[in-house]
Amino acid sequence: SVRTCSCNTIPTVKHGGGNLMLWGCFLANGPGNLITVNSTMKKEQYMKILNNNIRQSAEKLGLGNQWTF
Q1: For a designed S-S bond to 32, which of 25, 38, 52, 60 qualifies (C-beta 3.0 to 4.6 A apart)?
Q2: Residue 55 in 3-state DSSP?
Q3: Closest Cα partner for 38 from 55, 22, 27?
Q4: Using an 8 Å Cβ cutoff, are 20 and 37 in contact?
């Protein structure tokens, strides 16, 4: 049997499930925005997330207009 060292484990408490959906992007310069998606994503919500976050992420990472999507 495999023994685990208690110094390498963290006790957890589970509370009946749930889920969390995130949208994120990463660029050559690092990670971009990370957005919580509150419901089933449809194309309108996806387009809104792209419009609001791709350019903003590129600007925060100093890419200016030197990026392509």
Answers
A1: 25
A2: helix
A3: 22
A4: no
In order along its 69 residues, the chain shows pLDDT tens digits of: 566 677 778 888 777 777 788 999 888 788 999 999 988 888 999 999 999 898 888 888 888 888 777
For residue 9, give both structure tokens. 């484990």
CA 39 to chain centre: 15
Quote the pTM value: 0.60
CB-CB contact of 30 with 61 (8 Å):
yes
Helices (H), 1-69: 43-60
Instruction: Confirm if 58 and 33 have CB atoms less than 8 A apart.
Output: no
